[in-house]
Amino acid sequence: MTDTAERAAMPPTSADAEVAVRDLTVCFDTDRGEKPAVSHANLTLPAGCITGLVGESGSGKSTLALSLLGAVPPPGRITSGSVTMTGVGEVTSLRGAKLRGVRGGYIGYVFQASQNSLNPLKTVGKQLLDLGRAHDVDDLAGLIRRARELCELMGMDGVRILDSYQHQLSGGMRQRVGIVFALVLNAKVLVLDEPTTALDMLSQAAVLRIIARVHREIGLTTLIVTHDMGVVSELADRLAVMYGGRIVEDGPATDVLQSPSHPYTRALINATARVSGDVTRARALPGRPPDLVSVPTEGCVFRDRCAFAMDVCSEAEPVLGSWSRDRRRACHADAETVTSA
Amino acid sequence: MSTWRVLTRKPGRIVGMCIVLFFAVLAIFGPYIYSGPLAVDPDAIYAGPSAQHWLGTDFAGSDVLQEIVIGARYVLETAALAALLTGAIGTAVGLLAGYHRGRTDTALMRLTDFVLTIPGLPLLIVLSTIWSFGKPYEMAIALGVTGWGGVARSVRSQTLSLRERGFLEAARGLGLSNRHVIVKELLPNLAPFVAMNMLLALPAFIGAQVTLFFLGVVPFSSSNWGVMLNQAVFSGGALQSTAALPYLLSPLTCIVLITVGVVLFLDAVDELFNPRLRERS
Amino acid sequence: MIEAVGIERTFHGHGPFTGSHVVRALRGVDFTLPAGGAVAFIGESGCGKTTLGRILAGLETYDAGVLRVDGKDVSALSGRRRGELFRSIQMVHQDPYSVLNPTRTVAATLADPLRMVARRDAGGRGGFGGRGRDRGAVDRRARELLELVGLEPDGVLPKYPHQLSGGQRQRVVIARALTVDPRALIADEAVSMIDVSMRLGILSLLRDLRERLGIALVFITHDVATARYLGADGELHVIYRGEVIERGPVDTVIQSPVHPYTQCLLSAIPVLKGLEDPGPDRLEPLGLMDATVDTPGCLFEPRCPFATERCREEHPELLKQSVDGADVEHACFHPQIRHVAAVDLTHA
Q: pTM to 2 decimals?
């Protein structure tokens, strides 16, 4: 597909680039049967917004992010639900060339620790050309031009970057190159998996600033997946929290942080080391986050570590439902009880 | 996951284990099954397979199957001893060289290089003129002492890379002795590597011996597999006519089977030693 | 307990593509760690803080300067005595999995040093009991230590490292460090690889060890916020390219930093929207760190928004200053308090 052909097939404005995840379940084949890494997830990425998906290890956040691309690695597979994107339809039903076209052409993915996903033996420019060829891009010169534009947007010297090898770039630069690769085919949705892990404070701040800038300038719909609430707290318009494969809360970022309505969100905020505030008020969570095989199959997945647990929590799994303006939670306890504790 | 489960998890491993066990049993009990000297039957020289002689007969009319079974002991015992010897010497040398580095390393590696450059087969042939390898351990020593070079080199490089692992540094930082670090920390991490090397050495040493005897090294014993091959090719004309074919193929098939058995069983070794691999996600 | 004066360390390396190069990881660092005290080092990657940690733990040599542990100059000691001295300083690494032997259970990992200590003590005091008694005592002590670090002994002793969570592994590493009765722990990014919900647990543990056992802490991190949770009287030292450019009590340096680099670092900390407001004076450095360029003046000058001619030519040394009533040292010709750290909203 040429650049122009791609553009004709894609929606003209970013205002339409919305992603809807409906009742998505992704299971992995293990020794002990099929276990869900993501269970009945419902999430909307509103067009033009930055959504932060926060969760610890074992929460299923990376699996959820990969399923947006239809790229869940085997032995995992999507067993129910769908991922829909405006202008594309159901991504989960696409295969082969169509799916490849969506990846990169509509949705760009920046891998975790982008520092390791570049080929150490080829220059960045050559890898870019490989990418173009893999996507049947006719106008490769245009592709390079676009890459250079993106580099400038991110404060890097495009010409120099394209001629560099992976080891000649710092961690922060490699992360930015990862973003260039994700956006160079005119993707409208950008997914970043742990974009700042392994980066120090200054590089982290720089990368986050760049993500915000790129998001604004190009008009993207962005999803940032991270375990560190701090990373998304400044940037994100919306915040969604995952635990044990479930989405336990979501809503506008400021509201969720200010008055968390789920015990896990609340506990996570209290357990985060902060530069301001009273250190004696911080509390670590007891226990450890569940992994694929230890996630409870009945009742609420968080009940063992929950300060508000009740009898019903062991029997019935709470459903993600709306409460208050534009906010959702999955909890049996009363919202007021949790927010005012 | 228990040891048994590790061994039986994949069918290939079970097959490999059975083959290896079969030949081990053969080696131990073979001579008891057929006690006494080989029966000679001049009327049935190079006879084909029959109800009486399942694998036919050899140049003197003796039963081939009988010879195979009796001969198994020498071959396997030698190979096992040689594998153990090269494993022990090679690991010790490689470990000490890689762990201590510096002058110890240089000295040990010079020694290793020397051993590596010894042309094994020609040397053994020459040795055989002055030393008759009547007992398995004699052949094993000859093979073992000349063959540990490769093991030493690879154990050394494994040690060098393990050295960089944090837990060794931590052990030294705690004040644990060199001896402790080598034996309790390094060795268990080297174990799968060394075990695999030794297992793979088995078919290699079987091949080496058989080659030697095929080339005419003494002692001449008609139940020796290598000798059987030698007779089959040079006296029985096995490459020209089909008469001595079973005589030729029997020891060959055994060698191939043992190799296959070892290789299939090898698959279980890494998991056996490394508890981490036993957990499946 | 530890006293470092003018520690320098230079690495000479060859990259496959970059040719030979010299990296001055530490350019004369001094500091004192009092018994039971806590000193946190912060800085970007490549600033030399990890090298410093390793030197303090005796895992790395230094090229110049003096390092005294318990008043003894380590370079004057024999290899064996040095080893004994450094045993009282144990390292807690970023990646607990890499410092645990994957083929040994927790029980074995703890028993090794405990048995060694028991043997040493037995030898010194003329021996007591045979092997049997030893084993019981070792087992009891292992359980004691596991409980001390907040782990349930029966649940953890028979397990292999890969069967434990990151937080549990780190606790096992700390328990193992405690087997030799250290007087100081060097924690190098000890919580960066651990899930957020479990980090505070490890930090509280380190604080408890300080308070209950009087173990001093050197805490190396790039996450400034974690430095606040190490207990009272903590010091914060800011390193830039191998030099300490500001230091003082943790809260003073965070609330009222004086050196532009410290201010840049603190400005970079993300603000929890809704819970905090950004600091009013937040700023950014101009450009990235270039570790290959050495100037005669202030090393931070190329990136400093307030640099002047003098900064380019003269190298600032550490000077004492009183900030908010506390003693602070900084190395800047134009120090100015700027409030860059996020401000808590919840307790107006």
A: 0.82
